[in-house]
Design a protein that fits this description.
heterodimer; B: 2 domains; 13 helices; 68% helix
């Protein structure tokens, strides 16, 4: 048990240090790298909770895909750190406001979870025994039965976002030479090659 | 074993020694096979191109990898001006350790693994998708055009091919009914999955070529246009770590293909002369077969063009693996073979 507690404090401390470094780093690329570090520690905390499936999905989705694209974009941008610092005071009220709103929302969610009358019943639901059923099955049994519609709705939201991103970036570009593989494969010597007897001094007519 | 050591050595010491011992039992054979893989690759390609290959140092050139290692060790480490030193040295370490991390869940024989994770397949998928970080960090930290271009290519390439690898894995997992690698292998008793999933086995193999940046998809280090891609600025041991990481990744990916499609440690036929040979030998033989194909492909095929690579990933493999996933799940539900 001592090992588990030590591991918990280690990973949470690392997560907090990582999160702080995300905002305090001068270089945006270093910030993203620290963000990845934070994700890792969050995944480790999930493993400590016994939620190994969620931990792996966190690594696959956030670290393996989202953060890669994030890093990709940040590396491509030519960000001048000093220019970024200039507007700091001007934008601080907005940032602080968003932070406060998020904090209040978190408090509301947490409060509802502990105080609302239905919450008691929800928490009283029997949790499957980890030795009887694997993580993945337990999640699937809840996700595809009780929350099937919500789950589908979440999928639709993602689909809309995806189509939106494609529509926004897709445009007809002129002057692009695209390879048409079908046309290339369908070419044959009969239609493309002609043998010509060239007369000396006259050339091709 | 661990309990015995605990009682004699005090709190947790035994467990610690036991775990470290298990890790060493995996890492040393992997490192050795990696060393000889570099030699075998050069010899096999030499034979395929009617050359001899390295045959001078030691019998059959067997000591060549160690000579190379010593040579790299004594070279000078150069850091480019304007490079970000911490990230620059972190990148090869990340590549190398991620390549080794994958072995934590690999079942090389019945009951032979470091950890029997219930989500083993997901873990391997996660680790292989992280491999891109070493390359991207190297490309960015080098502060060099060639390195940066190589890293960009690699990031796009690896993210693209992971998607179809994920779908293929789901098809296999549906048939096996578990995310546990040991159970996936046990479910293949009698029928290895490369027979029913044959088209996906081919797609999977091509995808792991792209995932490990091997020929014909080695665009991140295409020497004819990018010098050495993301490795351009690396020398000495930092270069060696990249090199080792790439080869260990190849072995790990071959191990994954073996586990998912070629029946892991299972013998081809479950009768007497085959069952006498221990499972780990079968596993090694299958991995060696996959690695031979890796080398064979390298000696045979020209490099893909970048747009062709992207088209193959998104417009061919992704729809194909999705359709196969639907077919597999449809068949399993219809025939009532879906695991509960």
């Amino acid at each position: 048990m001592i090992v588990a507690a030590l591991a918990f404090y280690l990973f949470s401390a690392m997560a907090v240090i990582g999160a702080l470094n995300v905002i305090f780093q001068r270089n945006p690329v270093h910030s993203v790298l620290w963000l990845i570090f934070t994700f890792f520690n969050a995944a480790a905390l999930f493993v400590l909770l016994g939620a190994e499936f969620v931990a792996m999905i966190l690594v696959v989705v956030y670290v393996g895909a989202v953060a890669v694209l994030f890093l990709f974009v940040v590396m491509m941008l030519d960000i001048n750190v000093i220019m970024l610092r200039e507007g700091f005071l001007k934008y601080m009220p907005v940032g602080a406001l968003i932070g406060v709103i998020l904090l209040v929302e978190l408090a509301v969610v947490f409060g509802a979870w502990t105080m609302a009358p239905q919450a008691e019943a929800l928490r009283g639901l029997p949790t499957p025994d980890p030795s009887q059923i694997t993580n993945t099955e337990a999640l699937g049994q809840v996700l595809y039965t009780d929350y099937a519609y919500v789950f589908q709705a979440a999928g639709l939201v993602l689909l809309v976002a995806m189509i939106g991103a494609i529509v926004l970036t897709h445009r007809k570009r002129t002057g692009v030479r695209k390879q048409n593989i079908g046309a290339q494969v369908a070419r044959d010597p009969k239609t493309t090659v002609t043998l010509v007897q060239v007369q000396t001094g006259k050339g091709l007519q | 074993m661990a309990e015995f050591l605990n009682t004699h050595l005090g709190l947790y010491a035994g467990t610690l020694i036991f775990i470290v011992g298990k890790i060493l039992l995996f890492v040393i054979p992997v490192a050795l096979s990696m060393a000889f893989l570099t030699l075998i690759e050069r010899r096999v390609i030499g034979a395929m191109q009617l050359r001899i290959g390295p045959n001078v140092i030691g019998p059959f050139g067997l000591l060549q990898p160690f000579a190379d290692a010593v040579k790299l060790l004594f070279k000078e480490t150069v850091i480019p001006t304007g490079a970000s030193p911490v990230v620059f040295f972190l990148a090869p370490m990340v590549t190398f350790s991620l390549a080794l991390l994958g072995w934590a869940v690999m079942p090389v024989s019945a009951g032979w693994y470091i950890s029997n994770l219930n989500v083993g397949v997901l873990y391997l998928f996660a680790i292989s998708s992280l491999g891109v970080y070493g390359i991207v960090m190297a490309g960015w930290a080098s502060n060099s055009r060639y390195a940066f271009l190589g890293a960009m290519r690699s990031a796009a390439q690896m993210v693209s091919y992971e998607v179809s690898i994920g779908f293929i894995m789901i098809s296999v997992l549906l048939s096996a009914g578990s995310l546990n690698l040991t159970k996936v292998v046990e479910a293949q008793q009698g029928l290895w999955y490369f027979i029913p999933h044959f088209p996906m086995f081919i797609v999977f193999f091509i995808s792991i070529l792209a995932e490990t940046n091997r020929h014909p998809f080695d665009l991140p280090e295409a020497e004819s246009e990018l010098v050495a891609g993301f490795m351009t600025e690396y020398s000495s041991m930092s270069f060696a770590l990249f090199f080792l990481g790439e080869y260990i990744n190849m072995i790990a990916m071959s191990g994954l293909a073996t586990t998912l499609f070629l029946g892991g440690w299972l013998p081809p036929v479950n009768i007497a002369p085959f069952t006498w040979i221990p499972g780990v030998i079968w596993f090694a033989l299958k991995v060696a077969l996959c690695l031979f194909v890796f080398i064979w492909v390298r000696a045979t095929l020209p490099r893909y063009r970048y747009d062709q690579l992207m088209r193959l990933g998104w417009k061919v493999f992704l729809p194909l693996s999705l359709v196969w996933l639907i077919l597999t799940s449809g068949f399993l539900v219809y025939s009532g073979k879906l695991a509960h």
